């Protein structure tokens, strides 16, 4: 499928979705987020895709929601269309693992998009920020909630109230990103991580994703019960039998996603 604001390639069972509005530093407008929703749904349905990577350009993952598109809107319009609610849902409804590969600016909605993915690998040039306060607004794609859960209240308040940017070293230190790599290696490293995930059973990977995601949405007791039941349920899968048999027979497992 051809997109106006995205470039999508599928290689070795990994879908690479590249945000492509270079003139606006990949600012997230309705077209881009609408297309991203469609591309994620298509990747989720496609048996050839086992993992998804979302990336931007070297200069910007995304510099936020598109300020030009939002500037003249009023409350009634924003509320009436529930601005970007469906698009935010589409990201978290995606069941296959999504890696955000971030280089350059990931600001406002760009930082929020990266955080809505399952984990973030960034380049040493990455800059994260929630500078919405400078525009007289607050984050609207989950930033005040996710950043706080990921890095704690103090740093989240600091980021949202001062609007300052965080560099890659700080992002790794505080657990916002899983790894920092040299800018020139970003895509190679993200694809390597994607390939590792693609080797696994998609069924199991989706259950793992549900369990870890649940930890941000429920109490420890409920979350551990959810995990235990998921663990039990996987014993109904062929891939559990295959994974354990392969270990015992000292061979590589052949998962069939069943
Ligand atoms: C629309 C944007 C944009 C944005 C950059 N551009 N960010 N357009 N929306 N968020 C455009 C610029 O207008 C400019 O277009 C071109 O991209 C290059 O940007 P420059 O500013 O010239 O580049 P530079 O000097 O290198 O500065 C980079 C920057 C700066 C630091 C990232 O662009 C910046 O501060 N951008 C805004 C960041 C921001 O406030 N994000 C939060 C948005 S609100 P022209 O046509 O002039 O060349 C948000 C809310 C989310 O995200 C909630 C949604 C529900």
Automatic annotation (TrEMBL):
Q: Molecular function terms in GO for this entry? A: enoyl-CoA hydratase activity
Report keywords, A-Z: Fatty acid metabolism, Lipid metabolism, Lyase
What's the source species' lineage? Bacteria, Pseudomonadati, Pseudomonadota, Alphaproteobacteria, Rhodobacterales
- Kindly give the SUPFAM superfamilies that the UniProt entry links to this protein: ClpP/crotonase
What this protein is reported to do is described as: Could possibly oxidize fatty acids using specific components.
GO biological process: one example: fatty acid beta-oxidation
Q: Write down the chemical reaction(s) this protein catalyses.
A: a 4-saturated-(3S)-3-hydroxyacyl-CoA = a (3E)-enoyl-CoA + H2O; a (3S)-3-hydroxyacyl-CoA = a (2E)-enoyl-CoA + H2O
Family, according to the entry, reads as follows:
Belongs to the enoyl-CoA hydratase/isomerase family.
* PANTHER family tied to this protein: ENOYL-COA HYDRATASE, MITOCHONDRIAL, ENOYL-COA HYDRATASE-RELATED
Pfam entry (one):
ECH_1
Indicate the enzyme's highest-level EC class.
lyase
- Any idea what this protein is called? enoyl-CoA hydratase
The catalytic activity of this protein is classed by the Enzyme Commission as: 4.2.1.17
The protein's matches in InterPro entries, at most eight in alphabetical order, are given as: ClpP/crotonase-like_dom_sf (IPR029045), Enoyl-CoA_hyd/isom_CS (IPR018376), Enoyl-CoA_hydra/iso (IPR001753), Enoyl-CoA_hydra_C (IPR014748)
Give the originating organism. Gemmobacter aquaticus
The keyword Repressor is assigned to this record = no
